[in-house]
Specification:
The chain is of the alpha+beta class. It contains three helices and six strands; from the N terminus they run ααββαββββ. The protein has a single domain, classed as Nuclear Transport Factor 2, Chain: A (Roll). A six-stranded mixed sheet has the order 2-1-6-5-4-3. A hairpin with a 2-residue loop joins strand 4 and strand 5. About 15% of the residues are buried.
């Protein structure tokens, strides 16, 4: 592999990691517009509230329809998402990957703090459009939930 191709692969891998991290940053800062902007126009976004159930809890097939999903985080006083290990397979201007995440969701109900912690895996397909990496498909699968 030429040095140019190796450099391009490194640049792509960094850009993809920044894409993954931008998703969680936007979630935690309640930037729904920013979060929507990192998805392709005809994206496929699936949420599985229990990864063991083969059918998704819901499916969104358009970037414009993502707002209610991201706005749903407004029910929490605070959230904090930590991305862990991830794998990426590059194939030109397309990539697939898996990212592990631990998500903390804090609410106050009847004057008491309630904390929900979730273990999540994201299964992604990303594409490079006009030099920018975006999600074309994201499957959010909740592995476990702990309530405190």
């Amino acid at each position: 592999m030429s040095i140019e191709k190796r450099l391009q692969e490194l640049e792509d891998r960094i850009a993809i990691r920044e894409l993954v991290d931008q998703y969680t940053y936007c979630a935690d800062t309640r930037d729904a517009e920013g979060q929507m902007a990192i998805f392709t126009e005809n994206t496929n976004f699936e949420v599985y509230m229990d990864e063991k159930v083969p059918a998704p809890t819901y499916v969104i097939t358009s970037r414009n329809d993502l707002r209610p999903v991201f706005d749903d985080l407004n029910q929490y006083l605070s959230t904090m998402h930590f991305n862990g290990q991830s794998t990426v397979k590059l194939e030109g201007d397309k990539a697939t990957g898996t990212t592990y995440c631990r998500a903390y969701h804090l609410k106050v109900e009847d004057g008491a703090q309630k904390l929900m912690i979730a273990g999540i895996r994201y299964y992604d397909t990303m594409v490079k459009q006009d030099g920018v990496w975006m999600f074309s498909e994201r499957k959010l699968k909740v592995c476990w939930v702990e309530n405190r």
